[in-house]
Amino acid sequence: MFVREDVIDVAFINQGVVIAPEFNAGSFFNGAFSNEAAGVLRIQVWNTSGVTVANGFTNAGLIDISQGTTGSSSYVSSLTVTTGTLVNTGTIQSTVGARTGNRALNADVDNQGTI
Fold first, then answer.
1. What is the average pLDDT across 23-35?
2. How many other CB atoms are there within 10 angstroms of residue 37's CB atom?
3. Are the C-beta atoms of 43 and 65 separated by less than 8 Å?
4. Three-point CA angle 7, 89, 11, nearest 5°
5. What is the pLDDT of residue 35?
């Protein structure tokens, strides 16, 4: 599933693959969110936005913060958790991608997995 400048106001349990692709001005999960063991949240945006989750959540799968193939190498690809804690029992990684811009994890993290 691709999220591109989407606002999701309902509970979302990810058991598959969610990709926030390049040309994304930001996607927002405002309802309850979780990334299950089989879930992949891949953030590949090329601007200074990314994915914002309104409330703390548990990541039991993979969160991959990368960057797409276009745009400036100075842009930031990010995951932001507005309130609460991101409990990581899975893996959070930053991969090289096609550009060299920064990656950011803007959250309070309780890491019980791998970063």
1. 87
2. 11
3. yes
4. 25
5. 98
Contact between 42 and 66 (Cβ < 8 Å): yes
Radius of gyration of the chain (CA): 13
Kindly state the tokens that stand for 68: 């797409």
- The number of C-alpha atoms within 13 Å of 84 and in the hemisphere containing its C-beta is 14
Between CA 57 and CA 67 the distance in angstroms is 23
d(CA 66, CA 79): 10
For residue 81, the one-letter residue type is: V
Cα 94 to chain centroid, rounded: 10
Mean pLDDT of 88-101: 84
* Separation of alpha carbons 86 and 98, rounded Å: 27
